[in-house]
Amino acid sequence: MKKNNPRISILNNDVLNVSLNAFKDLIGSNSAPNAKFNDKEIGYHLFSASASNTSISNISDVYEDAPSEGTIRYRLSNLESEELQKKLNETLKIHAMETVSKGPKEIAIDLTKIPYYGKEENSGDTIKTKPKDGTSRFFAYATLYLIVNNKRYTLALKYVRKGEALKEVIDFLLNEIEDNGFKIKELYLDKEFFTVEVINYLKNRETPFIIPCVKRGSCGGIRNLLKGRKSYTTEYTMRSKKEEATFQVNVVVKYSKGKYKQKGIKHFAYAVYGIDIPIKSTFKKYRKRFGIESSYRLMNQARIQTSTKKPVLRLLYIGLSLLLVNIWIYIQWTYLSIPRQGGRQTVKWAFKTMLRQINKITGEKLGFGNKIILKI
Question: Is 91 in the same domain as 184?
């Protein structure tokens, strides 16, 4: 073994234990002393479904010693959405607080929508948008994440119901992290937050931000700014029925040069506040909220599949998938990095590799062997 190329290993059981330690307080320890399945075994089941990107019922069917689907649902029946959301947000921040240095950070907020095809359990559980993937109803979740070294720690999660104001969603998420000592250097918001209400709220809060401008209508408005062959900055006033907001807009001109089989120029407009950067750098700076490893793409690789109409269960499943992404980042920074001159080098360890490790060890715990249990 070469000294300048050390080998680092992490056991499957270690990965599972880190996950279980983060998970242990989420659903409460309520198993009776004589219960057939204890809290740890319930955790094995949930993490197995998450790592396999499959359903609770499928794990019950395939693994000989796994709890039944009814047992899992019974053990989760006492969960309450607000309390679970509070516990999830406490858990999501643990690993970042251990590994991220103090000081103002770049923060991003996104809104993700999970398609829903059934009938709501309660009116307002889902939001209604333009039809996509065969439905116009979606379970919506807003997430706030920290951008550090091209990695994205999710620090806060909010289940968004019908009628909730976007500024209230942002207020909830920002308070979640500021109460724990995280300070905002710059805030990147998804285009859905480009509203008069949100912009005025953030300006009053004196929070630096970049938001992509949205073209609305067939003419006028932002469309009038998307012209010329040079990038420029201007002041723009946007109005709603109740109020108006005046803010700086950076219009960035990009030349396609045949990229993605496109030619000519493209205009990108961004609402900017409290950030002093060259106009042309706005595009590149905002791109930081994306990155090679998209947290939503990773989340979907580890999301328990379900058709349940219960918002609290869906919130739990989303929270578990985000937690696994955080754990993946935490293990890399804590256990799988090598001290090098000029910083630490992280060992390559794919998220799918971690999921396979969890899947293998939970399969062993739940009795996966030569026999498959099939329902008649």
Answer: yes
Which distant-in-sequence residues (6+ apart) come within 8 Å of 319 by Cβ? 26, 84, 88, 91, 92, 157
> Cβ atoms within 10 A of the Cβ of 210, count?
23
SS3 187: strand
Mean pLDDT, residues 315-325: 96
66 and 106 together in one domain: no
Nearest C-alpha neighbor of 206 from the set 169, 238, 178: 178
Q: What is the pLDDT of residue 340?
A: 64
Same domain, 163 and 286: yes
Strand intervals (E) in the chain: 105-115, 127-132, 135-148, 151-160, 184-189, 209-212, 232-239, 244-255, 265-273, 337-340, 343-346
Q: Calculate the CA dihedral of residues 47, 51, 57, 62 and round it to 10 degrees.
A: -100
Q: Looking at the structure, do residues 167 and 287 belong to the same domain, yes or no?
A: yes
**CA atoms of 320 and 307, how far apart (whole Å):** 17
Instruction: Give the pLDDT of residue 33.
Output: 66
Give the residue numbers spanning the domain of 7: 1-78+338-376
Mean pLDDT on 201-224? 92
Domains of the chain: total: 2
Instruction: Give the residue, 36 or 171, on which the prediction is more confident.
Output: 171
Pair 43, 167 in one domain: no
Q: Among 238, 260, 295, which residue terminates a domain?
A: 295
Provide mean pLDDT across the span 7-21. Answer: 83
Residues 89 and 45 in one domain: no
pLDDT of residue 260: 46
| Least-confidence region, from 41-55, 143-157, 160-174, 321-335 | 143-157
pLDDT given at position 4: 45
| 176, 45: one domain | no
Any idea what the CATH number is for the domain that residue 281 is in? 3.30.420
Pick from 361, 369, 364, 366: which is nearest to 17 by CA? 361
Contact present, 46 and 319 (Cβ < 8 Å): no
260-to-200, 252, 289 alpha-carbon distances in Å: 36, 19, 21
Report which of 94, 74, 98 is spatially closest to residue 24, judged by C-alpha positions: 94
Does 131 lie in the same domain as 98?
yes
